[in-house]
Amino acid sequence: MSKLPELHESWLPKEHSLYRPRHGGKQRVALICAIVFLLLPVGAFAVGVRPGDFENRKLTPFPSASQGWSWFTQLSPWATDHLPLREQAIHAADGVSQGIFGEPAPFGDSNQNSNNTPLPIANVPVPPPNEFPNVLEGKDGWLYLGTELANPCEQTQSVDKIVAELNRLRNGVVASGRKFVVAIAPDKATMVPQYLPDNYVGKACHDAVTTAFWQAMTKVPYVLDLRGDLNAWIRQLGAPVYGPQDAHWSDEGGVTMTRRIAEALQPGISRTWKIEPASSWQVPADLPPLMGRSGGETNGRYYSILPNGTFNQTQTVDTNYAAQPLHYNSAFGPGTYGAPVGMLADSFTIRSARYLASVFGNLTIDEATAVDQDHGASVGQQLVGDRVVVVEVAQRTLVSGGDSLLDSDVESAIISTLAAHPVH
Fold first, then answer.
1. What H or E segment, with its residue span, contains residue 279?
2. Rounded to whole angstroms, what are the CA distances from 235 to 189, 200, 238, 397?
3. Could you report the per-residue pLDDT of 287-296, keeping only the tens digit for each?
4. Buried b (16+ CB within 10 A) or exposed e, 16-28
5. pTM for the predicted model, two decimal places
6. What are the backbone angles phi and psi of residue 56, rounded to the nearest 5°?
7. d(Cα 161, Cα 166) in Å, to the nearest integer?
8. pLDDT per residue over 5-17, tens digit each?
9. How many CA atoms lie within 13 A of 274 on its CB side?
């Protein structure tokens, strides 16, 4: 008996019990959706659509082969960040979630890229990481960055260890003949807590660790606690110096930090300064996009610093130090600081750069995360020509214990490089 040829189930008679169409209606819909999903970003890229910075941070750079096996783990966040139309998709998702469910879309926890295991906090419950929102909605339309609330609850180093690592870095810098200053930019939740919800995820651990953090930092002589100065501005203006929908301070914070750093390096230097209000500004708020929303503005005011009391040296300057180190050398005369200063900073210094440049006559600012490129080797070399090392760091970054400058390998690279080039 001859064997019948094998037939695909779609070639069988429709009356056959094993008959299955090659492409049923549902299969066709699924296939079309898959094609659209895959080809729409490609088509958008082909016609010139490029991803932009919309999540209160720079896009993840393409990983370097020098990173070894971590190249593979960094490839996924790079691909995600550079997907065309991603911002539009997030906005659409939030619109659907708000319209149908009356709540913001769950875009994931704010620390989802962390590979470190959080430390336990004695006698304080710590929520799972995926319960923290990217942005916390407070009272009267105020928004707070999720990492401000999550990082104290997800410390990878204790407060004591953070202080110890800062001391190690400071002692190494000072041993090379240089000065060392750390300026901490307080969190919005610290400076404007009155608009936080009465209860929120992680409130207990956030409050406990934040209190311990500031108690420790106020005892470190080279650390600048700016909270008192910022509160003085709040009393003077009758309003917070952080925007309702923005994660950063306004120019009052930039002026405050500039004065405090200058005074730490040369006490009495600001005695001749005159600070005058200048033009106002308005920029898109940085927190709504993290929730997939558009709109929202942050308003503020520029200031002018007259170091000698009569001559205004404040001007618009480039603030894109994330792309490459920026050097400022236009300040001169009484009330200014002329020794070479190397500063490692984060996004809070954007609103400070114009004021720093009006007071410091030989200043170089670099993005603090530049130490990640080669574990601090190139940054250490860059600081060789400076007599002062200044670190500006956000409270939310430092309290987590995960700041790159707290890494022992980074510290060792900077310390050894400066030790090989001491200042006499």
1. strand 274-284
2. 17, 27, 5, 27
3. 999 988 877 8
4. eeeeeeeeeeeee
5. 0.76
6. 65, 25
7. 9
8. 666 666 677 667 6
9. 9
